[in-house]
Amino acid sequence: MFRGFLFSLSVAAVMSPITVAADPIGDAAAGEKIYNQCKRCHQVGQGAEHRIGPHLNGIFGRPAAGYEDFRYSKALTRAGTSGLEWHADTLDVFLENPRALASGTRMSFRGLKDPQDRANVIAFLRIYSDDPANIPEADPTATVPDHDLDPAILALVGDAEYGEYLSGECTTCHQATGGDDGIPSIVLWREEDFVLAMHAYKNKQRAHPVMQMVAGRLGDEEIAALAAYFANIEE
Amino acid sequence: MSINRRTFITTSAVAAATLAAPMVRAAGTPNVVVVGGGAGGATAARYIAKDSKGAINVTLIEPTRRYYTCFFSNLYLGGFKEMEELGHGYGGMAAGGVNVVHDWAVGVDRDAKTVSLAGGGSLPYDKLILSPGIDFVDGAVEGWDLSAQNAMPHAYKAGSQSELLRAQLESMPQGGTFAMVAPPNPYRCPPGPYERVSMVAHFLKQNNPTAKIIVADPKAKFSKMALFQEGWANHYSGMVDWIGDDFGGGNVSVDPGAMTLTIDGEVTNVDVCNVIPAMKAGRIADMAGVTEGNWAPVNAADMSTKADADIYVLGDASSQGDMPKSGFSANSQAKVCANAVRGALTGSRVFPAKFSNTCWSLIATGDGVKVGATYEATPEKIAKVDGFISQTGESADVRQATYLESEGWYTGITTDMMG
Q1: Per mean pLDDT, which range of A125-139, B49-63, B84-98, B185-199 is the poorest?
Q2: Interface contact B388-A182, CB threshold 8 A
Q3: Where is the Cytochrome c domain (chain A) (predicted)?
Q4: Chain-wide mean pLDDT for chain B?
Q5: ipTM of the prediction
Q6: pLDDT of residue A222
Q7: What is A2-126's CATH superfamily?
Q8: Is B328 on the interface with A (CB under 8 A)?
Q9: What's the gap in Å between the CA of A70 and the closest CA on chain B?
Q10: Are B351 and A162 in contact (CB < 8 Å)?
Q11: Which of A103, A109, A161, A165 should be substituted to probe chain B, the one whose Cβ sees the most B Cβ atoms within 10 Å?
């Protein structure tokens, strides 16, 4: 499949950029809508950074777990070491069911069951990769979420040992190993993302009643402590 | 752990050899003994071993080789889970540094600070954590005792009893009657009997649609009552007849030989009769002398008993205040206890007690509901801080998401307990 994909692309590049849109691998515009499911964790486009997941610029041809400045699960690191690279075919398998390809991945995503949806989102991601060549840089599609949290709260340095104790309240539901089945993973998040999410529950901006209740009685120091603990948890 | 076991064997040999000599303790390293490997005990043992990193010897005494969770066992009755999915071994605990002893604890000597085992020998402790779950109050339902549990199963300790009840459900005659005798407060898993009614109704709707369900209940109201009654009306219209205390639901007797249930003087022939009697703390708590009445009163700050500062009681067996008796509660209490016990024995930091609980129930396929609360320790008891409950009339999407969340929780808590 990967060879076929390369072939059709090189033909497309030679003939005319317009044929890219009609490429059999999928419809990038439709893929952009599907990408809305991904962008809470993965940024892509100009200025994209690692957030809960790594950014996805230049993903084509990149080894799995390829960024040194992002902390991947052991499972994905192993897969990368064993030679897994991201191409249309491997992305297709991964997006269908992330755990099928890397059973210990922390990517909290049930997968896209429809092959056309996967083809579309892969076509969308392809826009942001140098490989294949001749793809113009596009506008950013995901940005740092706006928030009005007091910078002093974000600047708090968490007490990770206190966070470890407090984490007991989390790990009854959220697996400390990073697994997720119906309940998202909360391990190895950037501390800032964790703090923002918990304050969004506390302030009832995020909707989940259990999380609103749990976050509601946590103080700023306690949220910082949890963020510090979960950001650096050992697998 | 082999070093610990060897140390223990040497210790007991010495004690046996020198009659009346006081128990010699392994020098330096304190001993914690945990009795009962369920949601409370397994969590406490695993957390103390994990966090103390060898500074405390942790022994778990649990008679069964495989633990079948009582939570989700109703889903087995409804056909949503296989029994094997509810079974968990103790290999992960052993790998996590807990010395797992498969035996019954049959006595506690509070002066010598030892626990004796049915298989012989005894274990010394500096801190003893009891998490034995429940036993049934003798004579709670007229006509029923443990010798009748095959004719009229309780199925309130998961495993063979659950399988028996399921088999009886499957062999019910068409149009037959399933009866439940519900327990009085307080008891394990407040929504449990009513989730069970829902799961039985789900099974019967598919396999025996003209069958009836009668519930005799000594209570006038029950956990998530509005949600269950809405669900029964929506999914199982006309099938469930709930008879609360106002209509004599508390005035019952059974005849396991004749398979009859008598409610307020009226005799009914039944095909299956699920008797869930009144409950009390598992017997070892009584044997340790830390109970008052049916339960063991504890201090909210660390789950130590009022009777003995070196004995802690977790979960269903404890009398602690506002928390319901649930696996989630036991798991939550275990972490507070583990932090306090480790602090007391090694001087590690002790943080303020925080507790929480959420109970999910399944009413029908994809129709999940939940209730939960957070709690804190006060000098008197574990006191509720804040809570929430699913609403009647919620959309199917919300209920489906709640069910999926309960499945996630199941994986989370069993991983948290067993490693």
Answers
A1: A125-139
A2: no
A3: 26-129, 158-234
A4: 94
A5: 0.83
A6: 97
A7: Cytochrome c-like domain (1.10.760.10)
A8: yes
A9: 25
A10: yes
A11: A165
Chain B environment of A171 (Cβ under 8 Å): 412, 416
Q: What is the pLDDT of residues B133-164, one digit of tens each?
A: 999 999 999 999 999 999 999 999 999 999 99
Query: For chain B, which domains are there?
Result: 2-135+280-350 (3.50.50.60), 139-277 (3.50.50.60)
Contact B298, B325 (CB under 8 A): no
pLDDT surpasses 50 at A17: no
Would you state the pLDDT for residue A143?
36
Lowest mean pLDDT among A56-60, B231-235, B359-363, B369-373: A56-60
Domain A151-231 matching CATH 1.10.760.10: the answer reads yes
Nearest to A209 among B335, B349, B388 (CB): B388
pLDDT tens for A161-186 read 999 999 999 999 998 888 777 788 89
In whole angstroms, what is the distance from residue B341 CA to residue B376 CA? 18
B220: pLDDT strictly greater than 90: yes
Delimit the CATH 1.10.760.10 region(s) of chain A: 2-126, 151-231
Crossing angle of the two packed helices B225-235 and B192-207, in degrees rounded to 10 = 0
Asked if A173 lies within 8 A of B408 by C-beta distance, the reply is yes
A204 touches chain B (CB under 8 A): no
Q: How far is A140 from chain B (nearest CA, A)?
A: 32
